[in-house]
Amino acid sequence: MVIANDIVDNNNNLLLEKGITLTETYIARLKHLGIDRLSIEHPVLENAEPIPIITEDLRLELTLCFKALFTMKTEGIFTTKLQTMYFRQLSTTTENVISQIGESMPTILNAEIRQPTTDNVSHAVNVCLLSLVTGHYLKLPRPALRELAIGSLLHDIGKSIIPLIDGKPLNSPNMHPVYGRDLLRCHQISSTAARIVAEHHERYNGSGFPLGLTGKTTHPLSKIVAVANYFDNAVTQTAAEGRPLPEIIENLLASSDILFDQNTLRAFIHTTPIYTLGSMVALSTGQTGYVIQNRAHYPLRPLIRVFHKAGHDDIDMANQPSIAITDIIEERNQESCSS
Question: What residue intervals traverse the membrane (predicted)?
């Protein structure tokens, strides 16, 4: 694996030159020095380019539409004009998102669903797309998908209108689901979407907030958004802390019918790729390779391509239980050398 650019420290001292072959020793040393991002010259990887689940233009439209609402001042967001200006546009945009995701479902495990979460806006878009993928997998009817799209995209809209005094929330930040629900009700957005917003932090065993609802009393669509919201936040947190991605799936599985509904959780895991196609990973064998295909029902056991002087070998981890991915050296399109 060849480094694409010179790597320097904070004082601009050269650590590794462009063109040097990356080894496990170099990776460990770079991490010790706090270097967690680098660019790798990728060998040719046929069929290992993740296909965006929706077009870039549609993702941008969805992002800008939500951002316009989220960044609006509290006194403006409750005005009646917004119902025409933004919520109607949001309805049209999400309709197109639902259609494009439906077309992508046959290859969903090798698609790019989420992108790095950098703020509340990108998080909302990720949660919306992850939720809709699960909804399609569960074969929800179109009206339910519409409710899911709006509710999941606006799940944190209440954070934009929490009253502040001296820069601090007037009430507990855990009340943002209630503020969001009230906002949707004010604009006469569907009661189901408002309920999703209100319930996305509720947990199966009643340990969530703001009402402590149990699995039996939480709306089925809210359960989907609860898992998607947890997953996107967990991916961001594990990446920041340098912990392995498999921990997320392990924690989700351990919380089945405790924090999250089992059937919803199963559908989510079966349709959500953990490793992005083209990502470079370290294996327990000491080898490094690239993820070239994800496996249905085996989110942690993708097909790995390992290059060597004579060519390459493909390791089907679904049939190699003794081999594990120990680290993500570089995630495709994110230039990260830690998981």
Answer: none
